[in-house]
Amino acid sequence: MAISLNAAFIQPSAAQLSQSSQPLTAKTLSEDLQKTAININPAAIYHPSDETPATSLTIESIETWIGRSQSPDFPQVAERHKNAHQSLKFSFEEFQSALAHAYPDLADKKFGFTLQADGSLKALNSSGQLSSSDMNRLNNLLNASSSLKAAASSYRDASIDLVAADSVWGGSYVGGYNLNKDNFASTIDLGALFLKKGSVPNAETLNGFFSSQLWSKGERMTQATEAQMLSERNKVDVTA
Asked: Which domain of life is it from (predicted)?
């Protein structure tokens, strides 16, 4: 198909719109339309600010307590504890022998004993076989033995040193406890350490081990008690 183009000038139309004879009148909206108009008009126009609000960061610190490591001289401390154990065993066997000779009725009954904070020995009715009069007699007899009291005191001191020299979370697994003169009596039954151990493990057999008694009845070490213990031991080292 061929399209013909030419440069002919097209005269613009000079026609004019005729004026209408009908006047323009404003009409009011009906009540329903007015309500609709109000609902679609925004009550407020939000203009976002160019400023970005500052974000405040909350920093929370978490404290962790690792605890002390095992002392380099722990092997020497453990050896002293072993020797103190042997000395206490020898003294207690002597006491039992004398008890069997003088008071066979008491010697046939099972009993324990411990060392109180004031250095006195205290009988323990661990088996429930002792009467109140038996307890009184045993307390008097135990404290009448100066060698047994001295051996028990040495063992207590060696035990406290052993626990203090060990690591809180490892080592020989006794350093995680707070052992001192005030709680030793409620933690360690010295008599139970020397009961004859049977071939079948039981609660009585386990009590024959220092570590087992410490694990079952000992006071757990905390950051506060460790700091107090180290402070007290440093004072002793300075004044020694």
From this structure: Bacteria
Burial of 69 (0-12, 13-18, 19+ CB in 10 A): middle
CA 122 to chain centre: 32
Phi/psi-derived region of residue 173, left when phi > 0, alpha when psi is between -120 and 50, beta in every other case: left
pTM (two decimals) = 0.71
Structure tokens at 235: 């004072």
CA–chain centroid gap for 121, Å, is 33
CA–CA dist 15, 21 (Å, integer): 18
Q: What are phi and psi of 51, to 5 degrees?
A: -85, 130
Delimit the domains of the chain by residue range. Answer: 74-239
Q: What distance in Å separates the CA atoms of residue 240 and residue 234, rounded to the nearest whole number?
A: 10
CA 87/CA 62 separation, integer angstroms = 47
183: CB partners within 8 A, 6+ apart:
218, 219
Could you read off the pLDDT of 166-219 as tens digits, one per residue?
A: 998 888 899 999 999 999 999 999 999 998 766 666 777 788 899 999 999 999
Q: Amino acid identity of 15?
A: A
Diameter over CA atoms, the chain: 152
Name the DSSP letter for residue 159: H
Residue-wise pLDDT for 90-104, tens only, equals 999 999 999 999 999
CA angle centred on 92, ends 86 and 93, rounded to 5°: 90
What is the Cα–Cα distance from 95 to 3, expressed in whole angstroms? 138
Distance in angstroms (rounded) separating the CA atoms of residues 240 and 233: 10
